[in-house]
Design a protein that fits this description.
The chain is α+β, with helices and mostly antiparallel strands. It has 2 domains: 43-244, 2-Layer Sandwich (Cytochrome Bc1 Complex, Chain A, domain 1), CATH 3.30.830; 269-467, Metalloenzyme, LuxS/M16 peptidase-like (Cytochrome Bc1 Complex, Chain A, domain 1). 44% of the residues lie in helices and 17% in strands. It is globular and about 65 Å long. Residues 1-22 form the signal peptide.
């Protein structure tokens, strides 16, 4: 018998054995134990200067990772100078510090294999720094200069501004970003949240504005620091005390008043014309903030509607069954201090825009009128509970998340009780929260592209049509 025939016979014997034996269980019948999750204890303490610390020791690797937050982001941008917080973050990183110019800062960090990034969001400026524990003292000396003695050299500020302006120019070529900016500027109209950076506002920012912002925001009483890695509390305090001990507070937080939102605008159809083969479709309304009691039921309802990817109703109906869009989604964005936004969106052919809008609104109305099935409810809750665990892949994610939640005023037991509160949501709660919070008739429709007959769609929806330029 040749080698090939021997292999063939042996394979046939194995195959017959598999057929004769028990078939493996179907994947749908498999049962898995619930994922365990226990938050490690975070060491919280505060220096006399007011700096709040969140420490998680982790000696697995000789590394230390630090995230620093200062209250003050784009919510603080002055009128006519939207983008100040973001430009400040970029210029702070690339504008030199202490006796070092920008290149010297980069070389000093590179010499100890350290990494530093600085960004700004709506309510905070954030620094993330990582370094080997043996070089932490030298690294923190550099960070102290960045925090306390920024230079904002002219060439660094100019480079940061040019990058900002170039990013704004490129955004006009991304329909999804154009739609998102139109959504924000419309639904937050009349509030600083709706004042988005533009070429004009970024060009109006001067070095004096950067210095003033830095002086107003960067002080120890307004500083939060999450630290993880190969360091203990005693060593950390001894290291930082001499770097911060003469840093004085010039004001007492909170430094900025967050103004309430004005009344929501009347719904309409907003068209941003672009000569494209497909149209970006976004329905939007104001949503909720972190303290809203509907938070957990909304998480479940939103998963079923559109945030559950291929398990969601929008994806099943619009993509899987009808092939009208490659991607379709919904999302309730929870606001940290003010209500966030609810958005539902898709990209589809110009000729099918009206049908996609009709189907999106139909699925929302269905969620408002009928209880979800037991299978949908179970899948949504299990997915949310299990995915929650993977948000804490390493010690720094745990400690930085703990800091952020404290920074924004979440209850101390938020993380501990999150899964139980999701598990407690039932079909009645989903129905009731959809009826209260999901309001298709009050949603503004944003279209970026060249849809067929937007005037007819406007008439069908009973909302005025407004044509606008990209924000």
């Amino acid at each position: 018998m040749t080698g090939f025939r021997m292999l063939f016979v042996a394979g046939l014997v194995l195959l017959c054995g598999c057929v004769a034996g028990h078939a493996p269980p179907h994947p749908n019948t498999l049962e898995f134990a619930e994922l365990g999750f226990d938050l490690p204890k975070i060491d919280r303490f505060r220096l006399d200067s007011g700096v709040r610390f969140f420490l998680q020791e982790d000696q697995e690797l000789p590394l230390v990772t630090i995230t620093i937050m200062f209250e003050g982001g784009s919510i603080c941008d002055p009128q006519g100078k939207s983008g100040l917080a973001s430009l400040h973050a970029s210029a702070l990183r690339g504008g030199g510090a202490g006796d070092r110019r920008a290149l010297d800062v980069d070389q000093a960090l590179e010499g100890i294999a350290a990494d530093l990034s600085i960004t700004a969001d709506t309510y905070a400026t954030l620094l993330r720094f990582s370094v080997q524990s043996s070089d932490l003292a030298e690294g923190m000396g550099i960070i102290a200069d960045v925090l306390r003695h920024p230079r904002f050299d002219a060439d660094g500020v100019a480079l940061a501004r040019e990058r900002f302006l170039e990013n704004l120019r490129r955004e006009h070529d991304q329909p999804a970003l154009v739609a998102r900016k139109a959504l924000i500027s419309t639904l937050y109209q009349g509030h600083v949240l709706g004042e988005l950076p533009s070429s004009k506002s970024v060009s109006a920012i001067r070095r004096e504005d950067l210095l003033a912002y830095h002086q107003n925001v960067f002080m120890p009483g307004n500083m939060w620091m999450a630290v993880s890695g190969d360091i203990d509390r005693t060593s950390l305090s001894a290291l930082l005390s001499p770097l911060l001990e003469d840093w004085r507070n010039h004001a007492k937080p909170p430094l900025f008043a967050v103004e309430p939102l004005p009344a929501a605008p009347s719904p309409c159809v907003m068209l941003v014309p672009k000569d494209l083969p497909q149209t970006t479709v976004v329905l939007g309304q104001r949503g909720i903030d972190k303290g809203d009691p509907d938070l957990y039921a909304l998480r479940v309802a939103d998963f079923i509607l559109g945030s559950g990817n291929f398990n969601s109703r929008l994806m099943q109906e619009i993509r899987t069954r009808r092939g009208l869009a490659y991607s379709v989604y919904s999302q309730f964005q929870v606001g940290r201090r003010l209500p966030g936004l609810f958005v539902a969106g898709a990209e589809t052919r110009n000729a099918s825009v009206a049908e996609v809008v009709r189907l999106m609104r139909r699925e929302m109305e269905s969620l408002r009128k009928e209880r979800v099935s037991a299978d949908e409810l179970a899948l949504a809750k299990e997915s949310l509970i299990n995915s929650f665990v993977f948000g804490f892949a390493d010690s720094h994610e745990v400690v930085s998340q703990s800091m952020r939640l404290a920074f924004y005023g979440y209850p101390e037991d938020y993380l501990v009780r999150y899964r139980d509160r999701i598990a407690a949501v039932d079909a009645d709660a989903v129905l009731e929260v959809a009826q209260r919070r999901l309001l298709p008739g009050q949603q503004t429709l944003f279209l970026v592209g060249n849809p067929d007959r937007p005037d007819l769609l406007s008439d069908q929806l009973g909302m005025p049509l407004k044509t606008i330029s990209p924000p």
